[in-house]
């Protein structure tokens, strides 16, 4: 299927979010999917991921979660991001990440993205899907809890801090979720240790959420991101299978 990719601007309560849009180039509306970025932001690799999902029959939006600071890219990234040697990049992006993941901010942004979907002739009426990576997994779960009437499928890959002791931890809102949820955890991820993985699954089960949680052995935080040194080809292939299985089941194209 031929895919068209463009850059779009989305009005939000806090300004204008730039985003990448990928969709089948057939002039017809397709189910919408929000793809939430990892910590390194909107860039060519995420655009390629969106294109791959669009090839399966979806209209995919990848917003710049850091738009309050400016349009992407906000920092210069090397062709291959060495995760162990990017303290300067983290220092620039860290405060933006904290802002983007605040519950009220995440909910307002999701409001804007869903409103944009509603007004687009490229998006089929009805529920949407969400997939997120690292920071994006956090945002994806926030969207599933803040907009339960809109999200039919939510996939969260190598997310961190999803079930902490904080009073605003995302897992505490599990009871609001109506979507089917998939978690692909990395077993070498200090941001999501076994205790948090267990706590998250317990919260989902107690809330009656249709979910599946898998721990990818040998995978580190960021294993799906092919432009970083944390990339794991085996884990990435497994992630694509899990994502498309979820979309096909809960949000058929």
Automatic annotation (TrEMBL):
Chain segments annotated as transmembrane: none
Keywords attached to this entry: Hydrolase
Organism superkingdom: Bacteria
Entry annotated with the keyword Hydrolase: yes
Thylakoid found in the keyword field: no
One MF term in the entry's GO annotations: hydrolase activity
Pfam families cross-referenced by the UniProt entry: DLH
Domain Dienelactone hydrolase span(s) in chain numbering: 18-249
Protein name according to UniProt: Hydrolase
Organism: Kitasatospora aureofaciens
């Amino acid at each position: 299927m031929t895919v068209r990719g463009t850059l779009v601007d989305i009005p939000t309560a806090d300004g204008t979010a730039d985003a990448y849009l990928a969709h089948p180039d057939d002039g017809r509306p397709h189910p919408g999917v929000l793809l939430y970025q990892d910590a390194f932001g909107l860039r060519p690799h995420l655009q390629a991921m969106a294109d791959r999902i669009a090839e399966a029959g979806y209209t995919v939006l990848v917003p710049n979660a850091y738009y309050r600071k400016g349009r992407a890219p906000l920092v210069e990234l090397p062709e291959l991001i060495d995760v162990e040697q990017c303290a300067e990049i983290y220092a620039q992006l860290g405060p933006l990440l904290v802002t983007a993941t605040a519950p009220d901010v995440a909910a307002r942004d999701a409001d804007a993205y869903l409103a944009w979907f509603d007004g687009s002739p490229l998006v089929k009426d009805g529920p949407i899907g969400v997939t997120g990576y690292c920071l994006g997994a956090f945002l994806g779960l926030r969207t599933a809890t803040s907009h339960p009437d809109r999200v039919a499928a939510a996939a969260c890959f190598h997310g961190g801090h999803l079930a902490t002791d904080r009073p605003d931890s995302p897992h505490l809102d599990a009871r609001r979720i109506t979507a089917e949820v998939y978690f692909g955890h990395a077993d070498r991820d200090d941001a999501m240790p076994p205790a948090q993985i267990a706590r998250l699954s317990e919260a989902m089960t107690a809330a009656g959420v249709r979910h599946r949680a898998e721990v990818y052995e040998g995978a580190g935080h960021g294993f799906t991101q092919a432009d970083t040194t944390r990339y794991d080809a085996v884990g990435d292939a497994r992630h694509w299978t899990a994502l498309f299985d979820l979309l096909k089941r809960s949000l058929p194209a």
